[in-house]
Design a protein that fits this description.
- The chain is of the alpha/beta class.
- 30% of the residues lie in helices and 21% in strands.
- The protein has 14 helices and 27 strands.
- The longest helix is centred in the N-terminal third of the chain and has 26 residues.
């Protein structure tokens, strides 16, 4: 039997890798046949060994998040569990991801389709059957469905069955009018099942809470509007022209935007450029009462990426057991016509998440990048982060497979030089090593830095972030028809995202493919950005890192210079 995905990637996957993958595939079939038999006989094995899939996962709610524990989940109450089935050919996926994302590669921007990604990575059928057999055996397999790519299995089960499946207890947690069901201790699965699953969603992680990222700016910082940003980043009156070009914002806060607010915003601040005044597609819920975060994202991505088709992707979680971020990445990963740019203002402390969870999410990011989708995350508003002993990086900003957007501010009045914003999330991952694309830039930073925090606080060899920055203070947002001042890297993320979508528009006009995963391009073409050389972020009771010439963990490689980015992108197109 030939490996189905190999013929579809003749210029990307070598013949030797095809042969190796074929042999591995045959071994996998045999292994999972054996595992299936083992799983089916679990009930006959008394005291079967169990394995914690996420030993490093924090169980309690985040500090100051507002979540508090309530009653025990009743045995007949329903929750949703999401089983992340082990993917196939992850090494091949990463090879393709790197080749299509790296300028100079013969495969640069030769992105693959959703179908091709699914064929390559879809878990082997024996994996799903073995997991389903285990679920059925425990009474929980009759209300399960697989995602389109077969990579996740969502099951509606009673709390009684969930507690038996995972050897834990579920409790209701409350936050104002919000409730979720979560396990109060680490879950486990039988050792025969553990090789088949990366993690189980709906067990531990809590939905983000409002105002986690957006902060009201001080009155003296007011005045950043679309015209200021367009002038600052040399966008001028350029707008999108290609109907095939799409950009999106993602929301997990149960926040919504208002079309009335959007029209009012552009009436106030959109006179100098052509723009759309409505979102073209809404995925998920969108209510009547608008939220500041959602309004900010939509208004500013549509101002910088003006006249480009925009999607609002709201994922609040339809059930108490669902994780909004996980629901979003599952949905995008199975949507063939997803926008090519996503702006996301969301993050968790890296040390609160299990490595197995983060590694699987990274695989999902690789899938998106291989398809030519740029995913940009706000780097966070807590500087380096701090737990009293070490800096605390923010994930997904610390992932090597996304673009992290830091924050700057004007030094004094609007129009002055930009400096690093003290809130700008930045530092070095304690989990992920430095990717090849940034090693030279990071080494240069350390060799020339005149100020560094005590080395006990950070991991010098970790993935450094952010990658790029933009203004993050004094933004004016219209929310429920009221202009409000806001600040945070959640201002910078949609700003940069709209500019990237506009660069994509120029590529499409020239008959070229879109940028896709941005980081190798941003580091190779750092001269297409305006370097920020002043300003420090906050650390542990002292200054964190400081901006300097070249890349730094406050502002990354700098802020956008739109004409230079377009020129560099066109130059490096096949």
């Amino acid at each position: 039997m030939p490996v189905r995905y190999c013929p579809q990637f003749p210029n990307i996957v070598s013949k030797s890798r095809q042969v190796a993958a074929y042999r591995s595939y045959l071994i996998d079939i045999k292994m999972y046949q054996i595992l299936l038999v083992a799983v089916l006989s679990l009930s006959a094995v008394a005291g079967a060994t169990r394995v914690h899939l996420e030993p490093g996962q924090r169980v309690e709610p985040p500090v100051n998040s507002g979540w508090r524990v309530g009653r025990r989940c009743l045995p007949d109450e329903w929750i949703v569990l999401t089983f992340a089935l082990k993917l196939r050919n992850v090494d091949e996926l990463e090879e393709i991801f790197r080749r299509v994302s790296t300028p100079g590669s013969l495969s640069y921007r030769q992105h693959v389709s959703l179908e091709e990604v699914q064929v390559m990575t879809k878990p082997d059928g024996h994996v799903r059957k073995a997991v389903e057999a285990w679920l059925v055996q425990e009474g929980g397999g009759d209300r399960c469905r697989a995602t389109g790519g077969g990579d996740f299995l969502e099951c509606i089960v009673s709390c009684g069955i969930a507690e038996r499946l995972l050897d834990t207890e579920f409790f209701q947690y409350l936050n104002n009018n919000e409730t979720v069901m979560r396990a109060n201790r680490l879950y486990s699965v039988p050792s025969d099942v553990s090789p088949l699953i990366d993690f189980v969603g709906g067990t531990h992680r809590f939905p983000p809470t409002r105002r986690q990222l957006t902060k009201i700016s001080s009155p003296e910082a007011l005045g950043v509007t679309p015209s200021v940003l367009r002038r600052q980043y040399n966008v001028s009156d350029t707008v999108g022209k290609m109907s095939s070009n799409k950009q999106a914002v993602a929301q997990f806060l149960k926040e919504h935007f208002s079309e009335i607010d959007l029209k009012e915003f552009f009436l106030l601040f959109g006179e100098s450029f052509t723009h759309k005044d409505s979102v073209d597609k809404i995925v998920g819920p969108n209510g009547i009462l608008a939220g500041v975060e959602a309004s900010l994202d939509v208004e500013y991505i549509m101002s910088l990426g003006a006249n480009i088709s925009t999607w609002f992707w709201g994922t609040a979680g339809l059930h108490e057991g669902q994780e909004p971020f996980l629901q979003w990445i599952m949905a995008v990963g199975n949507t063939s016509d997803a926008p090519s740019v996503f702006s996301v203002s969301y993050g968790d402390d890296e040390d609160s998440l299990s490595t197995s969870y983060m590694e699987r999410i990274n695989q999902e990011f690789m899938k998106l990048g291989a398809r030519g989708i740029s995913v940009l995350f706000a780097s966070g508003d807590d500087g380096t982060g701090c737990n009293g002993k070490t800096f605390v990086p923010s994930f997904p900003a610390s992932s090597p497979y996304v673009t992290a957007v830091g924050g700057t501010g004007f030094e004094g009045i609007i129009g002055n030089a930009e400096v690093g914003n003290y809130i700008s999330g930045g530092g070095f991952s304690n989990v992920f090593s430095q990717p090849d694309y940034q090693q030279g830039a990071v080494q240069k930073f350390f060799s020339s830095a005149t100020h560094l925090p005590d080395s006990k606080y950070f991991n010098k060899s970790g993935r450094g972030y952010p990658d790029i920055s933009a203004l993050s203070n004094g933004f004016l947002v219209v929310c429920n028809l009221i202009p409000l001042p806001v600040a945070g890297t959640s201002c910078a993320a949609p700003t940069v995202s709209g500019i990237i979508a506009l660069v994509n528009d120029h590529l499409l006009q020239a008959g070229k493919p879109v940028l896709g995963f941005l980081n190798p391009f941003l580091y190779q073409q750092a001269s297409a950005l305006t370097d920020i050389t002043d300003g420090c972020n906050s650390g542990c009771l002292e200054t964190g890192f400081c901006s300097q010439s070249g890349w730094d963990p406050v502002t990354g490689n700098g802020v956008p210079n739109f004409p230079a980015l377009v020129q560099a992108a066109l130059k490096h197109s096949h």
